[in-house]
Each structure stands twice: as C-alpha cells, then as structure tokens.
Amino acid sequence: MHDASPYAGKTVTLRDDAVEVGGQSAEIVDWYDRTALPPDTRLVKEQDYLTRSGRGDLPADGEILYARVDGMMRIIHVTEIDGYAPPATEATAGPIEARDIGETCPACGQQIRAGQMVAVLILGPGADPDARAKARAGEAYDAAAIDVHWACRTGDESYDNGS
Questions:
Q1: List of residues 6+ apart from 15 with CB closer than 8 A
Q2: φ and ψ at 51, to 5 degrees?
Q3: Across the beta sheet with 72-77, what order do the strands follow?
C-alpha cells in the first residue's frame, strides 16, 4: 500500500489526451489502494478504468488515484495529470569521480575539482519539450542532472581526498 499521495486533497487538470476525461479538473481523494470502497463499487470503478486503460494505453503499474472528475468518482492513472513528472531517482548508488570539473557544488558553494567524488542528482526533464512529454507520459527521458560533492550529499567523508 502507498503512503498518502502528494496529490491527495488537490484539484488538478487532466491531460487533454486522457481518454474520456481529457482537459477536465479532477479532485484527488488519494491513491486508489488507500480507499475503502464496498466490493460492488470497487468492481464497477475497476471495470471502467480497465476499459479506459485499454483505449488510452495506460501503464499497468498500480500508480492509480481515486478522484472526482466531472461530478463522478473515477480511477485515473497518475500520468493522466497534466504536468506530471515521475519522481526523481538517484543516478548512482555510490560516489563517482567528478565529471564536470570547475562546476560549483550547490550544497557548499566550493568548486568541484579533479579527483573528487560526487553524487549525481537527477533534477527532471528540464526545458526540453520532448523530455517533458516523455516525463508526463511516464516514459524514460534524458534528464537534467547536477553533481554534488559526495560528502555534501551524504555526510560520508571517507571519499573526500581534500584535493
């Protein structure tokens, strides 16, 4: 089960190309798996969503929300929200050698120097329209990223060589 959705209690606009609900406002209740619905209601809502999902080619990943759309309670996929961007993930599990020598670490304001270890932080799709479209659709995209000193990101100074 999910934690509460960041959209819970908010009103969002759905993408224009969302099947049957495109361009409409949606008042988000929460993630669908966090709602307590009677079995017969759940069956009707799920059948409706499966029909829309097949026509709209929605991902089958369980990232679905329960929302009021045009006065009706519906299940929508998070990627149907206009402007949706998937959560950023770490590009690396551990430190890597700096790739952008001379850049300023946004955490400490010091220059990143040759031989220093950094963490790569993924920011999102940036200004690229194609990357933004892929992000909204929940697809992989080329992301804007920045380097941060590994110690500034994690507190772990074992990789800090003092260069």
A1: 22, 23, 80, 81, 82, 136
A2: -65, -50
A3: 11-13, 25-31, 64-69, 72-77
Q: What is the pLDDT of residues 27-55, one digit of tens each?
A: 999 999 999 999 999 999 999 998 888 88
110/22 Cα distance (integer angstroms) = 47
**E-only strand ranges, 4-160:** 11-13, 25-31, 64-69, 72-77, 96-97, 117-124, 144-149
Tokens encoding 134: 């892929």
Nearest CA to 116 out of 145, 150, 91 is that of 150
Where do the domains of the chain lie? Answer: 11-80, 96-159
Find, among 121, 130, 49, 55, the residue nearest to 92 by Cα: 121
Beta-bridge partner residues of 67: 28, 74
The model carries a pTM of: 0.56
Q: Are 32 and 64 in contact (CB under 8 A)?
A: yes
Cβ distance 75 to 57 under 8 Å?
A: no
Strand bridging mode 25-31 / 117-124: unpaired
Distance CA 74, CA 113 (A): 53
Strand residues in 20-129 grouped as ranges (E) = 25-31, 64-69, 72-77, 96-97, 117-124
